Amino acid sequence: TPRASAGHWSGLQELRALRAALSAPLRAAIGPGQRTLKPEEPPNGTKRSSPVQLRANVISSGLDEYAAIFIPGGHGAMNVIPFDKDVQTALDHFLNNDKLIITLCHGPASLLAGSIGRDSNPFSGHKITAFPDSLDFGANLDIGYLPGEMPWRLGEALKKEGVEIINDDMAGTTTSDRNLLTGDSPLAANQLGKDAVTALLARFGN
């Protein structure tokens, strides 16, 4: 979320660019011919002939004007994002500059990018809420929500890297630990939004 002078929020175009940039790895991995949501047009009417290049441009141009990063959930967040160096670069920026990192549901898979090429994960010791493995490997299979088993378990992978998950069910729970705000599922989206606004105003609302 970009910051503007006089304490007012603006920069919708930049926000769209950052959202497009961080979702580019997943679109690139899915490839042509598969059904995906139509991406938003980039700012200033520029054509996005190369999503990966746009992502690199956003990263290389700097993230200083952004007050927060939001990583949405959904099982797609487990596909490429946790293994992408640009995601790691973005997370490092927000973590090291005490700016907000906001995510929910399966979005916390992105935190695994923190350990790429490192002996430890900078999010080790953080408390979060996330979508429970017990549902992905239980009820979600039983009711046919998932066509088959997920290739790996979100919670298990996060715990191995020292991240503490405080929920074991899907109840709309949110939590904040330092500058990391998380929610357990879509049920938590409304409260997480309120938590994010409160935290943003506390940091940048002067």
Shape label: globular
Helix segment count? Answer: 6
Please identify the structural class as seen in this structure. alpha/beta
Question: What is the string of SSEs from the N terminus onward?
Answer: HHEHEEHHEEEH
Task: Write down the overall mean pLDDT.
Answer: 81
What is the CATH topology classification name? Answer: Rossmann fold
Spatially, the strands of the biggest sheet line up as: 1-2-6-5
Architecture, CATH level 2?
A: 3-Layer(aba) Sandwich
CA distance, first residue to last residue: 16 Å
Give the CATH H-level superfamily.
Class I glutamine amidotransferase (GATase) domain
CATH class: Alpha Beta
Approximately how much helix is present in the residues? Answer: 25-40%
How many domain units?
Answer: 1
Strand content: 5-15%
Major β-sheet profile = 4 strands, mixed
Low-confidence stretches: 1-10, 25-48
Give the tally of β-strands.
6
List the helices and strands and how they pair.
Layout: H1 12-30, H2 51-60, E1 68-71, H3 85-96, E2 100-104, E3 127-128, H4 133-142, H5 154-160, E4 164-165, E5 174-177, E6 180-183, H6 189-204
Parallel strand pairs: 1-2, 2-6, 3-4
Antiparallel strand pairs: 5-6
Helix pairs in contact: 1-2
